[in-house]
Amino acid sequence: MFSLIPKEAAFFELFERAAKNVHGGAIQLVEFLDNFDDRAERAKQIKDLEHAGDQLTHEIIALLNQSFITPLDREDIHELACRLDDILDLTDTVANRIVLYKISAPTEDLRRLARCLRHATAIIVEALGLLRNLKNAEAILQKCIAIHTQENEADGIEQHALASLFDDGLDPREIIKWKDIYQEIESATDRCEDVANVLEAIVLKNA
């Protein structure tokens, strides 16, 4: 579809690194919830990945500003970078809220939401690995469908989790804490869907 010069190739390298970093955050969150020990230290590990993600986003935007010719539309590059960054920001927020709110134990719904996020980000890694060659358009679109599926599953889990809060007779303060955590992690899966939407737009523009 287009020939690559080193600067153009650098965009794809940065996107692949950013996606792997985002997935690393989701993996760390699942491990955090499965083990639930050294919570402050585990949250810090996710925070470190979030800082690394910020740096990668900065590098992408800087490269975009320095480039006269780009391999993809400029707005798509910017949007993709920002949505990837959002996923990790929200993952970091979930970990921090768990520590801040002194959550004593994770719920099974929270673990299930984290697994959805881990799965969705793994698919994003695969999709961005295909982006260097838009002859992979059909495969990229299939990855996007799989991301949408994970987001839909997360929606259902969140609805079940929120309903359970009111069925369990929790203290109102606990309901507020858990509602916040559930909504933040589900928002992370929403941003995964945003990434899929950008990828779909890229494929369609270059069809």
Concise overview:
This protein is an all-alpha fold and 207 residues long. Helix content is 84%, strand content 0%. It has one domain: Methane Monooxygenase Hydroxylase, Chain G, domain 1, CATH 1.20.58.220.
Give the topology.
Elements: H1 6-35, H2 39-66, H3 74-100, H4 108-130, H5 137-167, H6 172-205
Structure description:
With 207 residues, the protein is mainly alpha-helical. It has a single domain (6-201), classed as Phosphate transport system protein phou homolog 2, domain 2 (Methane Monooxygenase Hydroxylase, Chain G, domain 1, Up-down Bundle). The protein has helices spanning 6-35, 39-66, 74-100, 108-130, 137-167, 172-205. α1 packs antiparallel against α4, α3 (74-100) runs antiparallel to α6 (172-205) and α5 (137-167) packs antiparallel against α6. The longest helix has 34 residues, at 172-205. It is globular, with a radius of gyration of 18 Å. The relative contact order is 0.15.
Features:
207 residues; mainly alpha; Methane Monooxygenase Hydroxylase, Chain G, domain 1; globular; disordered N terminus
Quaternary structure state of the chains depicted: single chain
State the shape: globular
| CATH homologous superfamily classification | Phosphate transport system protein phou homolog 2, domain 2
Please report the total strand number as a whole number: 0
Number of helices: 6
Could you estimate the helical fraction of the residues in percent? over 70%
Question: Helix/strand/pairing class, anyone?
Answer: mainly alpha
